[in-house]
Design goal:
The protein has 295 residues and is an all-beta fold. 0% of the residues lie in helices and 49% in strands. It is globular, with a radius of gyration of 17 Å.
């Protein structure tokens, strides 16, 4: 879900080890800036997100498993502010990256960046304005959403042949994509008429299931891996945000690194169970993290 993409202001150091739910966490320092978002991680441990210096233009990046960072900008991106520029959101094992950029026309446009660094702009044909691409699987299918004329969000799946398929859960006000597995399972969230958000899982046959974190006032799903583990975050009755991992059995594991104060969001999970996300620390700064699963 990119309703509120979190780009956090970082203190700047990496490598602090923490544990919660059996996970071991490490902070990720920004490549060349003071604000960073880590959004997705693939099966090789490569990560994508965005960063910027202060209130300057946002840049996309790819961080490989060795920690080497490649920064990039969509050719048609508008710069100048932290709300402009390029945001990379999802990637697959082949190194294809999807995301969005702020266009010179005032709208956000989706992009596909191949492993060689070539950009292709992708907009939903029915979108009067913004198109956001969230995830891409091994088959080249792309999960995203667009805003209609009433600013209601609609989820779509773009097939490898370029055909767009609607994916909205039935009878919802707005829906947002989270993750897409290689076998076609899709997760995301939607708002009801009261404005509350609920997680959803769509299986490979197209059947939807609504899932909420127990006792949560809102639930968001961000990614799904080959084993069916789902990452996400929820709000409790005090409006505090915490991350979670949901197992196929339905069991939830709360994610809150020891140094986290609030706003914990798990935004990605790969096939090894490695997770990425962000939180506000006890130092009142934002931190991006990666987490190794229990052994």
């Amino acid at each position: 879900m990119l309703r509120r993409l979190l780009v956090v202001t970082l203190l700047g150091l990496a490598g602090t080890a923490m544990a919660a739910g059996g996970y071991k966490f490490s902070q990720i320092a920004p490549p060349d800036g003071t604000a960073l978002a880590v959004i997705s991680v693939n099966s090789a441990g490569a990560m994508v997100g965005s960063y910027n210096k202060g209130f300057d233009t946002r840049h996309g990046y790819l961080r490989n498993a060795q920690g080497e960072v490649t920064s990039f900008d969509a050719p048609e991106a508008r710069g100048g502010t932290a709300a402009s520029g390029t945001t990379s959101i999802g990637l697959n094992a082949a190194g294809q990256i999807v995301g969005f950029f702020a266009g010179k026309d005032g709208h956000n446009h989706g992009f596909l960046r191949d492993a060689a660094g070539t950009f292709t702009q992708i907009d939903h044909p029915d979108a009067p304005g913004d198109t956001i691409l969230r995830a891409i699987n091994a088959s080249g299918q792309i999960l995203g959403y667009y805003d209609d004329a009433e600013r209601r969000a609609h989820v779509f799946l773009r097939l490898a042949d370029g055909i767009f398929q609607p994916i909205d859960p039935p009878n919802v006000y707005s829906a947002y994509p989270g993750g897409l597995s290689d076998d076609g399972r899709i997760v995301g969230d939607f708002s009801d008429k009261a404005g509350k958000y609920h997680g959803f899982l769509r299986d490979g046959a197209g059947a939807f299931k609504v899932i909420d974190y127990p006792g949560a006032t809102e639930t968001s799903f961000s990614a799904i891996n080959a084993a069916g583990q789902i990452s996400g975050y929820y709000k409790d009755k005090n409006y505090a945000t915490f991350g979670f991992i949901r197992e196929v059995s339905g069991k939830f594991t709360k994610i809150k690194p020891a140094e986290a104060k609030n706003n914990v969001e798990v935004t990605g999970i790969n096939d090894s169970g490695q997770i990425v996300g962000s939180y506000i620390g006890r130092d009142d700064y934002g931190h991006a993290f990666m987490g190794a699963p229990p052994q």
